[in-house]
Amino acid sequence: MRKTAMTRNAITVKVGSVSIGHEHPVVVQSMTNTDTADIERTVEQVYQLAKAGSELVRITVNSEAAAAAVSTIRERLDALDCDVPLVGDFHFNGHKLLEKYPCCAQALAKYRINPGNVGRGSKRDPQFAQMIECAIRYDKPVRIGVNWGSLDQSVLARLMDENSRSSTPRDSVAVMHDAVITSALESAEKAIELGLAKDKILLSCKMSGVQDLISVYQDLASRCDFPLHLGLTEAGMGSKGIVSSTAALAVLLQQGIGDTIRISLTPEPGGDRCQEVVVAQEILQSMGIRSFTPAVISCPGCGRTTSDYFQQLAQDIQSFLRHKMPEWKTQYAGVENMKVAVMGCVVNGPGESKNANIGISLPGTGERPVAPVYIDGQKDVTLKGNDIAEQFQKIVEQYVTKTYQQ
């Protein structure tokens, strides 16, 4: 468990076989971007996300065709020995779909409800109640997920009116932050009044700004003990999305806030959806919160490393380790904590290699084409020739087999 300035929320919620909250590890989740009605593509993407390490996968349930497909998707995944829990993402018509398609309601491990679009005006409360009653009937947990971009306008208007009558009015941003939190907490209270157990509720209050997200979750965590889902909504594409998500989540996670995370990256055209899983894992691993795959320590390169050989080696080793992990994690306990150093020259190379479990120090430009390998701090062998990468991979695999054998 993390040692932080704040205590993580005390409630534990079970989502299928996954426990979220309290002293349980922070859970990584993701979301498909396929049309859920397209069973083949959705099964394939869920399977790939789960294989990459997503412990929950959310799917869009926005139409009758999507709702009708959910139970078949679950069956196909089970046939592939993929037991990742599926979360149904409902907006606008979830109350109808859950009632009309009981197989969908049963196959999902959790429902996501957005209070901002569960219904307008007089329809809001009864439609929200209908979804909560369905969750009770099928014994499913619910994430009450507020997004600032689809905030319940009645809550915002009410708080704005109260603020305007105050003798010390706050600025509009502060009121909006409070409205997001209030929407989540009041919805949770309504769900409990309707009979949903407290340990069936998770909350999220997603914002698209880093400082907004930090401020809202710090306040939310101080006002409730529900498990919290973290994520910067609409984080963006590429380095912008990765950096923004990391900046926001790292601050909160360091304070002990957050029980499950999702990195909402805009994928590059034709890009790999699994990137959001890898980024989530790397945030947690870089902070020492969880370990998922052996860490590769590699130098940035300098004038001593004009060749790209060490860069290619570092990339190859990292890909090799991720490729092997699905097999290794079932056979070698603790292998995810292994550190592998791939260094490009003799300045810091030997030192970093000695500090890793296993490391290789390449010679750099203009030096002898040899590469000493260090194992647990001791020089073991010096590699030469054109197949240094292949030789080093074999040494890594032998080290894993010898060191982590159960």
From TrEMBL:
Tell me the protein family, please.
Answer: Belongs to the IspG family.
Enumerate the spans annotated as IspG C-terminal domain: 296-397
What does the UniProt function comment say about this protein?
Converts 2C-methyl-D-erythritol 2,4-cyclodiphosphate (ME-2,4cPP) into 1-hydroxy-2-methyl-2-(E)-butenyl 4-diphosphate.
Binding locations of [4Fe-4S] cluster = 299, 302, 345, 352
Q: Which domain of life is it from?
A: Bacteria
Which positions fall inside the IspG TIM-barrel domain?
A: 12-280
Q: Does the keyword Signal apply?
A: no
Q: What is this protein called?
A: 4-hydroxy-3-methylbut-2-en-1-yl diphosphate synthase (flavodoxin)
Q: Which cofactor does it need?
A: [4Fe-4S] cluster
Some GO term, biological process aspect, for this entry: which one?
isopentenyl diphosphate biosynthetic process, methylerythritol 4-phosphate pathway
According to the record, cofactor stoichiometry and binding are noted as:
Binds 1 [4Fe-4S] cluster.
- Keywords tagged on the record: 4Fe-4S, Iron, Iron-sulfur, Isoprene biosynthesis, Metal-binding, Oxidoreductase
Q: Name one Pfam family in it.
A: GcpE_C
Leading EC class: oxidoreductase
Record-level Gene Ontology MF annotations? 4 iron, 4 sulfur cluster binding; 4-hydroxy-3-methylbut-2-en-1-yl diphosphate synthase activity (ferredoxin); 4-hydroxy-3-methylbut-2-enyl-diphosphate synthase activity (flavodoxin); iron ion binding
The metabolic or biological pathway listed in the UniProt record of this protein is: Isoprenoid biosynthesis; isopentenyl diphosphate biosynthesis via DXP pathway; isopentenyl diphosphate from 1-deoxy-D-xylulose 5-phosphate: step 5/6
Q: Which gene encodes it?
A: ispG
Species whose genome carries this gene:
Cycloclasticus pugetii
Q: Which reaction does it catalyse?
A: (2E)-4-hydroxy-3-methylbut-2-enyl diphosphate + oxidized [flavodoxin] + H2O + 2 H(+) = 2-C-methyl-D-erythritol 2,4-cyclic diphosphate + reduced [flavodoxin]
EC number assigned by the record: 1.17.7.3
